[in-house]
Amino acid sequence: MRLWPQFGTRRARINRTPSKIVARGTPWATVMLASLLPGLALIASAPVLPPFGFLMFISWRQLRPGLLPIWAGLPLGIFDDLFSGQPFGSAVLLFSAAAIALDMIEARLPWRNFLTEWLVAIGLIIVYTALGLALANLDGAATPLRVTWPQIVISILAYPLVGRFVALADRFRLTPFLEIR
Amino acid sequence: MAPPANRRSGYSRRAQYTIFISYFAGVAGVLLGVVLLVVSFVQPSAFTGLRVLAADLTEPAGHVTATGRMASKDFFATVSGYFKAGSQHARLERELAIAKIRLVEARATAVENRRLKGLLGLAQQSPAPVVVTRLTSSTAASTRRYATLAAGADRGVQKGMPVRSEMGLLGRVLEVGQGSARVLLVTDSESVVPVRRASDGVPAFAQGTGDGTLRIRLINLGLNPLKKGDVLVTSGSGGLYRPGTPIAIVANILRDGATAQVIANPSDSDYVLVDRPFAPVPPPAITPIPDSQ
């Protein structure tokens, strides 16, 4: 039994089904990898990289609302907190609150297009970064607000790219490659 | 648009309960986040073990990306080198001529230093570093400035040890795991380093601002003697950082101090050195002997 899809022209297309593990696990795995990414990418002396874990999380919630459960912010937030450098619990709180906020917005705005989703995400990114700064400052730091502006701009511009990646991962997720016997 | 008034998913009790429980768990996540935050505010060391374990587990990945980081930097340096070769060659020749003169002067100073130190009876004070290693990861998406070191208790790293590159001071060790350690960089806003001006020893504190610069606060109030381009070195007071380690160059003068650029950029440092704290930790308090009254 193969667990990994094989891409290319020679892949048999009929009599195949997606793997349940890949179909269920891809969102979780991508968000966790994205939480690790900013730390490993460079040794920064200023907050310059977007919080990729958070961007990936809200992107999955926007693209496939039912796929990650509404409580997914709890385990994914704990994982993010281990590596983000924020006081422990800040991502748990902010991921969960963002999931609930997205759910409420979705009930009021059932139609969706690129622009509305981006605008909603921009709002969430600004609030996330500002609250993250506030929580870090409560914990003993004294970083001024102006330090976060570059990060907010980069995050907003990076969000459509993250959405693109999530769409790609979503196609990968449902690639049928297991043979039905 | 207003949300639908009736949000029942259908007549299935099972489906209704599932939805209710998932919302309940979502709200519980928010509340648990608040609880975890309060715990980490009140007891900052509560999650050290978890964090250190996570850093230990991801340390091999950090090694790979650190190597890749250096390789890509070398690649870009090579490409850009082709474009800048001519002008750089001319500049280097000019600098070499100046450096040769400075070298002769420095040799004379070294001889004089040796003579004076001999007079004072001082030994050479530069013990070998505890370990030479790499920074494997950092908190690039947070406003806090932490980095992870690729060596931990297994190689003699201890809490409080200063970390520097060959250029200058980077930070100090905050938490130590088995194979990794967490470093508080000098640019973090919680880091305060006692410094002095290299030329004449004007004392000051260098506090991080979180954006890669340092805020220099003078200890003596009055006329601000700092000038743009002044080099600041650690003063050694407080007994953590060895005196004379370069840390920053003054960039902007303010009314009561300055902002300064850090000399040792952590992203440019291939390898970093972990030193022993400058002053040894004082011995524990003497316990009175019970029957010595």
Integer average pLDDT of chain B: 84
Question: Briefly, what CATH class of the domain at 46-84 and 128-278 in chain B?
Answer: Mainly Beta
**Domains of chain A, number:** 1
Q: What is the subunit organization of this protein?
A: heterodimer
- Structural class from helices and strands of chain A? mainly alpha
Keywords (chain B): Cell shape, Membrane, Transmembrane, Transmembrane helix
Domain Rod shape-determining protein MreC beta-barrel core (chain B): 139-273
Protein name (chain B): Cell shape-determining protein MreC
Function (chain B): Involved in formation and maintenance of cell shape.
Explain the overall architecture.
The complex is a heterodimer of chains A (181) and B (293). With 181 residues, chain A is mainly α. Chain A has one domain (27-174). Chain A has helices at residues 20-41, 52-63, 73-84, 90-108, 114-138, 149-173, and strands at 16-17, 178-179. In chain A, strands 1-2 form a two-stranded antiparallel sheet. The longest helix of chain A has 25 residues, at 114-138. Chain A is globular. The mean pLDDT of chain A is 88. Chain B has 293 residues and is of the alpha+beta class. A 7-stranded antiparallel beta sheet of chain B has the order 1-13-4-5-6-3-2, with helices on one face. Chain B has a domain at 46-84 and 128-278: Thrombin, subunit H (Beta Barrel), CATH 2.40.10. Chains A and B meet through helix 1, helix 3, helix 4 and helix 5 of A and helix 1, helix 2, strand 2 and strand 3 of B. Chain B: The chain crosses the membrane at residues 20-42. Chain B: Involved in formation and maintenance of cell shape. Chain B: This is Cell shape-determining protein MreC. Chain B: Residues 139-273 form the Rod shape-determining protein MreC beta-barrel core domain.
